[in-house]
TrEMBL record:
<dbReference type="Pfam" id="PF00155">
    <property type="entry name" value="Aminotran_1_2"/>
</dbReference>
<dbReference type="InterPro" id="IPR050596">
    <property type="entry name" value="AspAT/PAT-like"/>
</dbReference>
<feature type="domain" description="Aminotransferase class I/classII large">
    <location>
        <begin position="100"/>
        <end position="342"/>
    </location>
</feature>
<keyword id="KW-0663">Pyridoxal phosphate</keyword>
<dbReference type="InterPro" id="IPR004839">
    <property type="entry name" value="Aminotransferase_I/II_large"/>
</dbReference>
<keyword id="KW-0808">Transferase</keyword>
<comment type="similarity">
    <text>Belongs to the class-I pyridoxal-phosphate-dependent aminotransferase family.</text>
</comment>
<dbReference type="GO" id="GO:0008483">
    <property type="term" value="F:transaminase activity"/>
</dbReference>
<protein>
    <submittedName>
        <fullName>Aspartate/methionine/tyrosine aminotransferase</fullName>
    </submittedName>
</protein>
<dbReference type="InterPro" id="IPR015424">
    <property type="entry name" value="PyrdxlP-dep_Trfase"/>
</dbReference>
<keyword id="KW-0032">Aminotransferase</keyword>
<dbReference type="InterPro" id="IPR015421">
    <property type="entry name" value="PyrdxlP-dep_Trfase_major"/>
</dbReference>
Length: 493
């Protein structure tokens, strides 16, 4: 059975070894892109970068550990991430882009917010509910989130004092890094970031503390945390971990997660990015996730197709949330208050759904304030509409993911995701994921997301987002099939 491991390879070491200043992330980015342009040959779009690569030479020997512990590595990947979106995908190469499989989010025009939640937005605006609020969020919304999260746990562990409503996953991790690592009580060692991971999150941590990247292997949809556990020291101030990895969709092993939490020092803050932990079998989370030094981050971006709303929540120890209040009220005041009704209704209806409720009645009506003006009949109709849209969406996205992985599995090595809408595809024809993106875009018009942008350093790994209409996914697979066949034929000749 194949194991996916985002380890450092010879190509990354070669780039760092050729940099005149290996601490300059922009030089590393330009060397990486320069090699891509050089290998594109006559198809190069930026000959000046290719020439920079050709002029480079080896200056030093570099080890994988040096690369994984270097501040410049994190920033280099983030700068390459910026270049991909700003200068290539939506810049100079935009005219080549016909089919977009690189977005990382659900196509909201086909599977957007359920109508019930859209009505919450309209309701809040009609009531003019967009004034100042508690920096942790409105209490009813926090109560609803706590009850929903308790339904997902082995036993109830949360109340509203464990919850803060936030401005989405990326912002939350950034503000947590600032809150935890800027304090005088933070331990003095390196922060640990499991990879694969999302560059803005890792960069947010690296701006405030030295970071060591820890490659985590995944097999059969499960990520092993043993390398992360082995890397812990009493001086580790923070651990950043995606519980469902981006781009593999592999889920952390719950027993190993408990081992990580129990092994870490009480002064080590463990930040769990849970935003991709959906579109998979429902299961109970370990109560270890509610430990005093654990902070859990969720958002509406993936599971509810609303990345532009920048809304979510964090769960943490009551004392942590109380201290976070001061940080939040100083740095940004509070989240958009007109979104609290969406969060509250979503959390209540999700709890009813996962606990098997078929009809919302008097007891469910009593969970809402009388000022909402709800009736039992109106609430029940809204709940049924929510269930229908939610189940239809879940079935469609699961089917699309399975069908896409099956189609692409005939062309390349697919790491079938256990969760998430993303899948990691390894194309053996390439040993550089960015070159793979460029070649496929030029030959097929299909835009994939290079694996290096999520710290998958080795091989031709591409992330494919499967939450697209089937006609687009099928057309992309057909184009890739023709192009890969043509490339194989050319190689054989």
């Amino acid at each position: 059975m194949r194991t996916f491991l985002p380890d450092v390879d010879a190509r990354l070491l070669d780039v760092v070894a050729r940099a005149r200043n290996p601490l300059d992330p922009l030089e590393l980015r330009d060397l990486w892109l320069g090699r891509v342009e050089h290998e594109l040959g006559t198809r190069s779009r930026r000959p000046e970068l290719a020439e920079q690569w050709r002029r480079s030479r080896l200056w030093r020997e570099v080890t994988a550990e040096e690369v994984l512990s270097s501040r410049s590595t994190v920033r280099f990947v983030k700068e390459l991430f910026n270049w991909f979106f700003r200068d290539d995908l939506y810049g100079d190469l935009a005219e080549q882009r016909a089919l977009l499989l690189s977005s990382g989010s659900v196509d909201e025009e086909h599977w957007g917010l359920p109508e019930t939640l859209k009505e919450c937005l309209r309701f809040a605006l009609r009531r003019d509910w967009y004034g100042y609020s508690d920096s942790r969020g409105r209490i009813p919304a926090r109560e609803a989130v706590a009850a929903y999260e308790n339904a997902l746990m082995e036993r109830p562990v949360y109340d509203e004092r464990n919850v803060a409503i936030t401005l989405g996953g990326t912002f939350t991790v950034s503000t947590l890094a600032d809150f935890v690592l800027s304090g005088t009580t933070a331990a003095a060692g390196q922060a640990l970031c499991g990879i694969p991971n999302y560059p803005p999150l890792v960069e947010a941590v690296a701006r405030r503390r030295d970071v060591r990247l820890v490659p985590l292997p995944s097999t059969a949809g499960r990520t092993s945390l043993q390398p992360l556990i082995a890397a812990l020291t009493p001086e580790t101030p923070l651990v950043l971990l995606q519980t469902a990895a981006n781009p593999t969709g592999a889920l952390v092993d719950e027993a190993e997660l408990a081992q990580l939490i129990n092994t870490a020092s009480p002064t080590t803050t463990i930040v769990l990015d849970e935003c991709h932990e959906w579109l998979g079998p429902e299961r109970l989370r370990s109560v270890a996730r509610a430990a005093r030094n654990v902070v859990r981050v969720s958002s509406l971006s993936k599971n509810w197709s609303a990345p532009g709303m920048k809304t979510g929540w964090m769960l943490a120890d009551r004392g942590f949330i109380d201290e976070y209040y001061e940080h939040a009220s100083t740095m940004f005041g509070g989240p958009p208050s007109f979104l609290y009704t969406v969060v509250e209704v979503l959390a209540r209806m999700e709890r009813w759904r996962i606990t098997g409720l078929s009809d919302a009645g008097i007891a469910e009506l009593a969970e809402f304030e009388p000022s909402y003006g709800l009736t039992a009949d109106r609430l029940n109709r809204a709940f049924h509409a929510y269930l229908t849209e939610r189940d239809t969406r879940e079935d469609a996205l699961s089917t699309l993911r399975a069908a896409t992985c099956h189609r692409l599995g005939k062309l390349a090595e697919v790491t079938v995701p256990a969760y998430s809408i993303n899948a990691a595809i390894t194309f053996p024809e390439w040993d550089d994921s960015y070159l793979c993106f460029r070649d496929l875009l030029r030959e097929t018009g299909v835009a994939v997301y290079p694996g290096i942008l999520n710290f998958c350093f080795n091989g031709g790994v591409a992330r494919v987002t499967t939450a697209r209409p089937w006609d687009e996914l099928s057309a992309a697979a057909d184009r890739l099939h023709v192009a890969l066949g043509s490339m194989a034929g050319t190689a054989d000749a």
